[in-house]
Amino acid sequence: MKEQLVEAIANMQEEEALQLAQEMLDAGEDPQVVLDACRDGMAIVGDRYEAKEYFLPELVIAGDMLQDIGALVKPLLKGAQAEDEKPLGNVVLGTVRGDIHDIGKDIVSFMLDVNNFKVHDIGVDAAPAKFVEKIKEVQPEVVGMSGFLTLAFEQMRLTVEAIKEAGLRDNIKIMIGGAVMDEAITSHIGADAFGADAAAAVKLAKTWTGVN
Description:
The protein is of the alpha/beta class. The chain is built from nine helices and five strands. Strands 2-1-3-4-5 form a five-stranded parallel β-sheet, with helices on both faces. β1 (90-95), α5 (103-114) and β2 form a beta-alpha-beta unit. The two termini are 32 Å apart.
C-alpha cells in the first residue's frame, strides 16, 4: 500500500491518499512507513514542479495532503507523550529570500513537529531581518534555512551575517538544506551543518538539544 500512497500523493489524488493513509494505520502499519510514503510522494511532486508539469495550485494541494495525513500520524508517533509535555527545543525555519520553494521546508517542519520540537515557520522568501526578528522573539536553539536555487547560497550567507551582527549567533545552531546544498557550501555560508533530508534535520536538532 505504500507504493499506492506514494502514487496518490504524486498524482494529486487527495481523497484517495488520505483514505490509503488511514487504512494503512488501521491495519497496524508503522506510522513511519506512512511518513516515508509522504516524503517519496512529495519528492515526485517537487520534481514535476521543477519540470513545469506542476504549478503553484498543485503545490498547495500537496501541502494540504501533507497536513491532513500528518493529523492522522502525529498522535500515533507521539504515543504516550502528554499534550502539555515540554518540547525538546525551539526551531526557527524558513526558505531564504528570493526562493519560494516550500515542499522540502514543510516536510522538515512536519518531521520536527512530530518529534516534539516547537517549530516557528517563517515561510518562504524570508529576508535576513525576518530570521533575526523571529530569533529574538522565540530564542530558539536551532535555526533551519532552506533553499532550492543556487541564489540561496548568497542569501543564506547574508542571513548568517545578519544573525551575527544582531549578536545572536553564539546562542544558536544553524542547519541548511535543499536540493542544491551540500557539505561543501556549509562553511562558505557560515552554517553549522547540512541536512540531506528531513530525517537528518531531526537528528541534528536532537543532537544539538542534547537528546541524542
